[in-house]
Specification:
heterotrimer, A mainly alpha, B alpha/beta, C mainly alpha, B: 17 helices, 23% strand, C: mainly alpha, ABC transporter involved in vitamin B12 uptake, BtuC, 12 helices, globular
């Protein structure tokens, strides 16, 4: 028995859009079985995970708040992944962005007078810090040919340890009863809230704007064309006069900047201070979102919402049904695997053929 | 040795389909022992597919293969090897980072010790004059030496049928002669040989029988020695190929390209260094650069196109130093380029035709505004290229990879010609292209020159160069011979230069 | 510095190096066949969780080790199906398996957090294990350490002295050529992937059964990624894997001792040492690269889609 892959002539847009949806259904099915094995009714689990989060205003806001950083980071990652540049370090770039922007807030804490420039300065600093941090694996790859997979990942651990050190040490609030956290930011250093309830903050708008901008750039601009070409046919990209080194650096810059921006948005919006950890793994979850959204900004937006729903649902399930959070994580990993498998089916016809395995 | 009564191997009613495409359409073929049988056909005629079926790499959709009259099933290359079928690939199936002995061991039976293998390789080398050093890594060997590994690997199985796929495509004339000696010896030992080629002179010299394929069908079987090259070609092509209208000697225009002692160290270990290449081309003329693959063509192209930069004065376009410029800067000076590989280099197969227009013309045509691509303009340009060059395609703007070789090549060449460049550099303009498309492309090149442009054609096809080029130079080992007018040279003279004879390096060697 | 102190340090270094050696050797075989498996971390942590659970339930370290191997193999089978069978993107697939593995390990291990059990038994030979200075180091280790060394020797022998190893290396060098010769490219690759998964699972089981004999969530702490870096750093040669693992293991131990001895550097900096050392090692490797042939298996990470 062996699996034969026969290339399909044309790939319909419908099947390309449908395959992630089918993968999602398959993942839900497997999840239902797993949940049943744990002694919980699959129907109840489905309701708690996917339906309940959509049913009240507060959780809808939470979904938006969770989806925003995911969409923002994943959009940046899409630039890299389309060019076959495997930036696995978005989590680290996120942390560095939050840290750097947070330091601006701490430095201007309690200052009098004109403070309207503080928030923009924080956002800018965070973005630039994430960008700079992403330049490390980018330069190592361009100048020395070092695999960006390993370097960007190692730097995640370094960034997390750096934040931990800063939050517990130099940046710790001296009046904070020895809690490992910084001063709470002034209002001037916080993103404004969008509605009653002090939950949904303007960071969501920032993320949305960035995603729309990315969609235009990637789909319609010459630069976006360069990115698509470099990943599809590197030799043709050179023939087109697109410098591979320049593109690599720009892709990492965009990706790192996006992650850094997401980091400071999270800190200035939701958290409001610096703590030893500021990310529930957004940088890694965003990788799933990027592939789930098939590396296109619109798809990423949808995928981010889906993942956000499952995350909120997972938190609720932990409380209501005593289902562990690890289940959500396993579900997300399974979903990514199924999306990748489904993608193969849109490009090839798969046949099981009797005969020797080759 | 007289051939046996019945055929040693036969293939009857072979059909092979890949989806909607029929590569082999009811093919019958009989191969006798003690005979070299030619399989003739243009690129795309179905020779490769049939050969892969005979070697067990593909299974036929219909039809049978027989051995001494009995039907056999060739489920894998190993099964074919057990039946005594051996194959020498055109594109060598060698692992570059393994040694000669390791590559050969891959197809030998288990339990063969290193020492035994080395002994057998040496013995074979003695018998047939095919000498190999077992412990050398393949990446350090020349094309001729690599082919030797393929042949030795095949002969160690003591094959009754040896299939050779375009064996001389990477050999110098001298190496080809050595190969023919080996093949004739194998034939005299009573083995059968299937010789796949489109080179008529070789076939007429070596083969007693020929089967001719065209578009997947057998269109003829004959004794090639009784036919002329012209009649064989007519059978292969199936039509009178439209003669090329060569332009009369156009008045020479201004100098468009000058290379001044262009030298370049080898960019990678297996690449060729360029040494002191000097030439000049004027508007209105076509200069042909002949040479066997692997002698610096790709490196020369990269230096010309700007994909590799060189000292500024080494390359001058319209008199301006251009060696240091990138490809788009050179395009803005009026140059255009067509690289050898259409799939993956000249065009991105996964992208649409209009995207592929943007690929090479974004710097020289109004295809962008404020950094955004003007899609409609790109589509219009793709349409005019397709119309002007008769590009057959499915739909108005399909992916480049869905076009056939000939049509994609027409598109890629047409895309550049439509820019009316002052200088066009093209590498292997008609490789792997059907005869009609090839004729179209060559005519387009001639017409472009007639309009006053300078055209540089790098080609392995001597017939092509003698057809369209006004002057011919030869690239060997990274050095270029002085260009000579076509009327003042001959195929033999050029062939000698291609093999390295008569070059300064050869003279130095002899001294 | 007494001999016994030196020995103790070496023992801890070897202990820290062992999971890296085992996991990296498995990945080395996988990559030599041309497949890049980024899921090592997920397979390792699953091996740790499932191995610990099995050992607690059965009371036997051996059963735990076998369960860890099985867990790693099962996950890597999924990976192999995706990448070798369906030719899906190897990087994304590896990440999917990592995340899946982390989630699964948390699910399985949830019931075993905080439990303690006897550490894996150590070898004890009558006279040899008590030799001063080298007794414990050479003759007094647990089974996993010896397995790691045996694995290094075995992989070396397999790759360069057997026909199977030759075929595997050839496939990793050029899958098109080997396919033309009729070799079973996907079959061999799948087996290589399974072997890599088994090793990752065993390495994880070592962590929860011998190194620190308990399970804690995500206890691999990035060792799977360091193992991946180790393969590159070792230029895909088993002997260098052992050497590199000892270096990395040494960095980890150094960092622990430095923290314990209260050197004025912040603990986080010392904790970051192994990761920084990894980056440094990769940079040094790139700087010292030679120019002939190819260091990495030439077909590494490339998709293979044959059809008949």
């Amino acid at each position: 028995m062996r699996l034969d892959l026969v290339p399909r002539g044309r790939r319909s847009a419908l099947s390309a859009a449908l395959s992630p949806a089918l993968a999602f259904l398959a993942a839900v099915l497997v999840g239902g079985i797993a949940v049943a094995l744990m002694g919980v009714s699959p129907a109840a689990a489905f309701t708690v995970y996917f339906v309940a989060p959509l049913s009240d205003l507060w959780s809808l806001q939470e979904i938006a708040l969770k989806a925003a950083p995911l969409a923002l980071i994943a959009t940046g990652l899409a630039f890299c992944y389309r060019a076959n540049l495997w930036n696995i370090g978005a989590e680290g770039q996120f942390v560095v962005g939050g840290l750097a922007g947070g330091m601006v807030a701490i430095a201007t804490h309690g200052s009098e007078g004109a403070t309207f420039w503080v928030l923009p300065a924080m956002l800018l600093t965070g973005t630039l810090a994430g960008l700079a941090y992403a330049m490390i694996p980018a330069l190592l790859r361009v100048k020395l040919g070092v695999s960006e997979i390993l370097t960007s990942l190692m730097l995640v651990y370094v960034a997390e340890l750096l934040l931990d050190y800063m939050a517990r040490g130099p940046l710790r609030d001296p009046a904070g009863y020895n809690f490992p956290q910084s001063v709470t930011f002034d209002d001037a250093a916080r993103l404004p809230y969008l509605m009653e309830g002090d939950t949904l903050h303007a960071g969501v708008l920032v993320a949305l704007a960035a995603v729309l901008l990315a969609a235009v750039v990637l789909g319609r601009s010459l630069f976006g064309f360069e990115m698509r070409l470099v990943g599809a046919s590197p030799r043709a990209a050179r023939f087109a006069g697109f410098g591979e080194a320049r593109l690599t650096l720009m892709a990492f810059a965009i990706s790192g900047g996006a992650a850094g921006l997401a980091g400071i948005v999270e800190v200035a919006g939701k958290i409001g201070q610096l703590q030893p950890t500021i990310s529930p793994g957004y940088g890694f979850t965003a990788i799933i979102v990027a592939f789930l959204g098939r590396l296109s900004p619109v798809g990423i937006l949808l995928a981010a919402l889906v993942i956000a729903v499952t995350t909120i649902g997972g938190e609720a399930a932990q409380i209501d049904l005593r289902l562990p959070l690890d289940l959500t994580r396993a579900f997300q990993g399974l979903l990514l695997g199924l999306v990748l498998a489904a993608d193969v089916f849109t490009r090839f016809k798969v046949r099981l053929v009797p005969g020797a395995a080759r | 040795m007289a051939s046996e009564a019945g055929p040693l191997f036969g293939a009857y009613g072979i059909v092979k389909r890949f989806g909607a495409f029929t590569a082999n359409d009811h093919i019958d073929l009989e191969i006798r022992a003690g005979e070299i049988h030619a399989l003739l056909g243009e690129n795309g005629a179905g020779k490769s597919t049939l050969m892969k079926i005979l070697y067990g790499l593909l299974e036929p959709t219909e039809g049978v293969v027989t051995h001494r009259g009995e039907t056999v099933r060739l489920g894998s290359p190993e099964a074919a090897r057990r039946l005594g079928i051996g194959m020498v690939f055109q594109h060598f199936s060698l692992c570059e980072n393994l040694t000669v002995a390791e590559n050969i061991a891959l197809v030998m039976e288990r339990g063969l010790s290193r020492a035994d293998l080395a002994r057998r390789i040496a013995a074979l080398g003695q018998t047939y004059g095919l000498h190999l050093e077992p412990d050398r890594p393949v990446w350090s060997l020349s094309a001729g030496e690599r082919q030797r590994i393929e042949i030795v690997r095949c002969l160690l199985q003591d094959p009754k049928l040896v299939i050779l796929d375009e064996p001389t495509s990477v050999l110098t004339p001298g190496e080809a002669e050595l190969l023919f000696t080996v093949l004739e010896r194998l034939r005299d030992e009573g083995r059968a040989l299937l010789y796949i080629s489109h080179r008529l002179d070789e076939v007429r010299r070596l083969c007693a029988r020929a089967t001719i394929l065209r578009a997947g069908k057998v269109v003829g079987a004959c004794d090639p020695r009784a036919e002329s090259a012209a009649s064989l070609a007519a059978m292969m092509v199936g039509e009178e190929v439209r003669g090329i209208a060569a332009a009369p000697g156009a008045p020479a225009g201004p100098e468009r390209l000058r290379l001044d002692r262009l030298s370049l160290p080898a960019p990678r270990l297996h690449a060729t260094a360029l040494r002191d290449i000097t030439l000049a081309i004027r508007g209105g003329e076509i200069l042909g650069i002949a040479g066997i693959a692997g002698n610096g063509q790709a490196e020369l192209f990269a230096a010309l196109s700007g994909e590799t930069t060189v000292p500024a004065g080494a390359v001058r376009i319209d008199g301006a130093p251009a060696g240091h410029l990138g490809i788009n800067a050179r395009r803005r000076l009026g140059a255009a380029f067509v690289p050898e590989e259409r799939n993956g280099h000249a065009a991105a197969p996964g992208l649409s035709l209009s995207d592929n227009i943007v690929l090479s013309r974004h710097a020289t045509a109004p295809l962008t505004r404020f950094g955004l691509v003007r899609r409609a303009a790109a589509r219009a340009m793709a349409a005019s290229v397709s119309t002007a060059f008769d590009v057959r395609k499915a739909g108005p703007d399909p992916a480049a990879g869905t076009l056939s070789g000939g049509n994609l090549q027409k598109f890629v060449v047409g895309r550049e010609i439509l820019a009316e460049p002052g200088l066009l550099v093209v590498d292997q303009p008609t490789w792997g292209v059907d005869a009609a498309a090839a004729a179209r492309i060559r005519q387009a090149l001639i017409d472009l020159a007639a309009r006053g442009s300078a055209v540089l054609v790098i080609s392995q096809d001597l017939d092509e160069l003698f057809e369209i080029a006004g002057r011919i130079a030869v690239l060997h080992g990274g050095s270029l011979s002085p260009p000579v007018a076509r009327a003042e040279t001959s195929r033999e003279a050029v062939g000698l230069l291609m093999g390295g004879a008569g070059t300064p390096s050869e003279a130095a060697h002899a001294a | 510095m007494s001999l016994d102190l030196v020995q103790m340090v070496l023992v801890t270094v070897l202990a820290a190096a062992t999971p890296l050696i085992i996991a990296a050797l498995g990945e080395l075989v996988t990559e030599r066949a041309g497949v890049l498996n980024l899921g090592v971390e997920g397979m390792m942590v699953c091996g740790a969780a499932i191995g610990f659970a099995a050992a607690v339930e059965s009371g036997s370290t051996l059963v735990g080790a076998l369960a860890g191997i099985g867990a790693g193999m099962a996950l890597s089978a999924l990976f192999g199906l995706l990448t070798v069978g369906l030719a899906a993107n190897q990087v994304a697939s590896g990440l999917a398996l990592t995340i899946l593995g982390l989630g699964l390990s948390g699910l399985v291990g949830a019931g075993y957090v905080g439990l303690k059990r006897e550490p894996a038994p150590h070898l004890h030979l009558p006279v040899l294990s008590d030799l001063p200075g080298i007794g414990r180091l050479v003759f007094g280790q647990d089974g996993f350490v010896y397995a790691g060394i045996a694995l290094a020797l075995g992989v070396s022998w397999f790759l360069w002295r057997t026909r199977g190893g030759l075929i595997l290396r050839a496939i990793g060098d050029d899958h098109t050529a080997t396919h033309s010769l009729g070799l079973s490219v996907r079959g061999v690759r799948f087996l290589a992937v399974l072997f890599g998964g088994a090793c990752a699972g065993l390495a994880g089981a070592y962590l929860s059964l011998a190194y620190t004999p308990f399970w804690a969530p995500a206890m691999t702490a990035g060792r799977g990624w360091i193992a991946l870096a180790l393969v590159v750093f070792a230029s895909w040669r088993p002997a260098r894997v052992v050497g590199g693992a000892i270096l990395f293991g040494g960095a980890t131990v150094l960092q622990l001792h430095a923290q314990a001895s209260g050197i004025g550097l912040p603990g986080q900096l010392l904790s970051a040492l192994p990761y920084l050392a990894t980056i440094l090692a990769l940079v040094l490797l790139s700087l010292g690269r030679r120019r002939g042939g190819s260091q990495a298996p030439a077909a590494l990470g490339r998709d293979f889609t044959p059809h008949r």
